[in-house]
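This part of the workshop introduces the protein records we will be handling. Getting from the letters to the tokens is the skill we practise here. An example says more than a description, so a record of this kind follows:
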Amino acid sequence: MVSRKKVACDDFVAICFEDFAGQGFRDGGCSRHGRRWRARRGPRACPPLREGAACCGRASLELVGFYIGADVGGVAQASHGLSDFFQVPGSEGDGGPPGSAHNPQSQLPSSSAVIGGLHAGYNWQISHWVLGVEGDWQWTSAKYSFCRQTDMASAPCFDNDFGFLTINGETRGIGTVRGRFGYAFDRVLVYGTGGVAFADLRDSITADCRLFGCGRSESPNFTSANFSTVKTGWVAGAGVEWMLSPNWILRSEYLHVDVGTVTNTLNLAPTNCADGGPCGASWSHGNRYDIGRFGVSYKFGG
């Protein structure tokens, strides 16, 4: 049986719990003579409620312990990169001026998508300061696509006898392992976070040259290659948590993720290249993400 009573202590109100089972109360308070209590705001102590009992709880609920949870939000991706079609250079009139072995172009494709997943971590607390470690994995499907020329005589997105290229990219998941450091007051934790990030990337390059071949080649073909990469980079961000109870926590968090540059190359068969090759296409791109999400966690140990 647990009873509640309020008592005014200067400019704050303490809610005191009397636990007749004699169990201690770890959430921001102390236990004495079989009673438990917590302070919601204001000074760390108030006048005794009764003989032998004093309200001496901390102003914040205790965050120490292991927790698991789920979150959902949105991700915005920015991929800045350079695509290229390469072939053996030809003479003037063979798809470009003399020496046109490459046709590099800059692209800035972007995408956005829903993101959601699971997280788990552990917190240590010294007074109001909280130090923790957390890992998470988020599923998403952030996609982009663009088309471009082969050599300089071709058209960007249709085959005018020189073929064209289509490049697709997708991020299927983002994971992080992070440290957290913050300050807790009342029921709120404000924290910064940073660490290592991982991204599951899927790309494809397609050469659509079904009329008269790619660039200077006169060998019609349709060639595509798929690429799968897990890239490692860094993550930094900040967040706020609200303790609904000793066990349940709501959170709002922002993360910026950068996993660096990925380079993929489609090499066409020598029979599909002018003068026996080499020829093909490449796509080199950086991967940056801005993530905003809300979540809920369950802390064990109550």
User: Anything to note?
Assistant: The chain has two domains: 2-55, 65-299.
